[in-house]
């Protein structure tokens, strides 16, 4: 997709690429090894593409590493069948520093708007945790 956007679509100088990652890529969580490894590889691509596309095309590339956010995929882990917060949900809330809750789609959208802003033109090759302060470092 990146090749299509940059080479075929001719993304203009000052363009932005945002990869959607996860704090799980740095947490070493049980039962998430393959998912975490794939997202960690994406983190590496972010840095490599930032170098390549920055020098050649003036494009910034960053990863927004999401913490827990209820989505169609994650709800099965974050909520019980009755719709109540699960133990996984509670464990993530306990790791969150910003507020006693998990993230929302609006939290993620706001972070993306920040990164695509012209004011973010000098921010590139970054792993930006959008998790309410969950420290994804092993």
Q: What do you see in this structure?
A:
With 138 residues, the protein is of the alpha/beta class. It has a 3-stranded parallel β-sheet, with helices on both faces. Helix 2 links the parallel strand 1 and strand 2. The protein is elongated, with a radius of gyration of 16 Å. The relative contact order is 0.20.
How are the elements arranged and paired?
Elements (H helix, E strand, L loop, with lengths): L1 H7 L7 E7 L10 H25 L2 E7 L8 H4 L8 H9 L9 H12 L10 E4 L8
Structural features:
single chain, 3 strands, 5 helices, 138 residues, alpha/beta
- Kindly state the number of beta strands: 3
Largest sheet features: 3 strands, parallel
What percent of residues are in strands? 5-15%
Overall, the morphology is: elongated
Can you give me a brief rundown of this structure?
With 138 residues, this protein is of the alpha/beta class. It is 41% helix and 13% strand.
């Amino acid at each position: 997709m990146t090749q299509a956007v940059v080479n075929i679509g001719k993304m203009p100088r000052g363009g932005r690429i945002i990869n959607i990652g996860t704090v799980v890529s740095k947490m070493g969580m049980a039962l998430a090894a393959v998912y975490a490894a794939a997202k960690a590889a994406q983190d590496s691509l972010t840095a490599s593409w930032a170098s390549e596309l920055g020098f050649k095309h003036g494009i910034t590339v960053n990863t927004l590493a999401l913490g827990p956010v209820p989505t169609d995929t994650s709800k099965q882990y974050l909520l019980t069948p009755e719709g109540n917060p699960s133990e996984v949900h509670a464990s993530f809330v306990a790791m969150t520093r910003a507020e006693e809750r998990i993230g929302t789609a609006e939290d993620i959208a706001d972070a993306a708007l920040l990164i695509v802003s012209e004011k973010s033109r000098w921010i590139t090759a970054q792993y930006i945790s959008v998790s309410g302060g969950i420290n994804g470092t092993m």
